[in-house]
Amino acid sequence: MKKDHEIVWDKCLKVIKDNISLQSYKTWFEPIVPIKFKDSVLTIQVPSHFFYEWLEENYVSLLKKVIKKEIGSEGRLEYSIVMENNASNSSPYTVKLPTTNKRSVKNSPVSVPLVASEKSIRNPFVIPGLKKVNVDSNLNPAYSFENFIEGDCNRLARSAGYAVANNPGGTAFNPLLIYGGVGLGKTHLAHAIGIDIKNKFPNKTVLYVSSEKFAHQFIDAIKNSTTNDFIHFYQMMDVLIIDDVQFFAGKERTQDVFFHIFNHLHQSGKQLVLTSDKPPVEMQGMEQRLLSRFKWGLSADLQAPSLETRIAILEKKMYGNGIDLPPEVVEYLAYSINTNIREMEGALTSLLAQASLNKKAITLDLAKQMIDKFVKNTAREVSIDYIQKVVCDYFDLPIELLKSKTRKREVVQARQIAMYFSKKMTKSSLANIGAHCGGKDHATVLHACRTVNNLSETDKQFRSYLEDLEKKLTIQ
Length: 476
Fold this sequence. Notes:
The protein is an alpha/beta fold. The chain has four domains: 4-106, 2-Layer Sandwich (GMP Synthetase, Chain A, domain 3), CATH 3.30.300; 145-302, Rossmann fold (3-Layer(aba) Sandwich); 307-374, Orthogonal Bundle (Helicase, Ruva Protein, domain 3); 384-473, Orthogonal Bundle (Chromosomal Replication Initiator Protein Dnaa, Chain: A), CATH 1.10.1750. 51% of the residues lie in helices and 12% in strands. It has helices at 4-17, 22-28, 49-58, 60-71, 102-106, 155-166, 186-200, 211-223, 227-235, 252-267, 288-294, 307-320, 327-336, 341-357, 364-374, 384-395, 399-402, 409-425, 430-436, 442-458, 460-473, and strands at 33-38, 41-46, 76-84, 90-97, 176-180, 206-210, 239-243, 271-276, 298-302. The protein has a five-stranded parallel beta sheet, sandwiched between helices. The termini are far apart.
């Protein structure tokens, strides 16, 4: 049986879910745990201080309204924030507020950094008189914040990266670990942080290096008996950016030397930025003492971009290259390649090259031919987003209406058809299809598929709709 604080928070969540996107809800509200409800005060536990600040920055108005609606005008909200004091112990502390003004809370004595006790420690092994040398930062100027398109898929990581760039080594996000799948922008964001720091703090020494290059340099140092020089070089960095740290897995001596470099930089108040294809908890073959340090700061994930974000990325790339493409071609590219930004940009480049070399106009047919060749070695399936777009265009409905809760007959029918083709033409789960169609459950999707099958057998006009749509959805 649910307790009072769980019942109250469940009611709050129902209202919140109707007012924000599903992705934002999963990111910012599903991790929250209600822990107490007493004297009209609801206490909720959030995972970190950054999490709390993000809620106050972006959702304070919504939280005020929800608390007032579910508890009453006298209702108040308190946060219990989990603060990691060391690698093995975590404890909550509470920020009391009536969801009013953020400034008074930020200035309260409990707003302390997540890792605070080691800033004053200095490494005793630094060689006296060792001068800083000019270091090539290895940063790609094309990978700037200006060229990094923000969306729900990357907002947390980008915001944290921007905070680090404004105050390297002085935020709770040290280290900042950015993780996500292939081609989602981890390297771009890491470079953007380094570039911004170099622009704002020209005297700081910033270095970007891949984990593979770091490991090879260490091997060379062992061969040449220059291990101490290798370590001291990296200890001179003000900002160290290591790309793809998961490749340290299984390399015990490399992990050991990086552990000591990490400790020195962190204890000296220097900034570390790491990228990985997975969060620390899923990394295999890594020493626990190193993993625990990866968890000291913030681990921010990059997710697959939404349709709108993918279109914005393509338009940004076109604008930067002085190119103008028909909207239907841009949309088709964005719909067809939906998980890998690098692959999508590569497809755009290939399309432009084909059109230029063959002196052909860039049309939707040319885009379809190119996409089919470009991704022929991968699983060929249209996306749920593309199916919804084609169905909505066919029935002349806005896509927002299809994802809404309306029960109008023509909208329900279009929604059911979109679910039917999504189940037939993609490998997505029923739950995922339902989530794309306005947060419906798997039972609703099953019912929609049965309804469409039944109607196709009894209604000639409806069957012609399905045949037309299937032709439009089939990539030639």
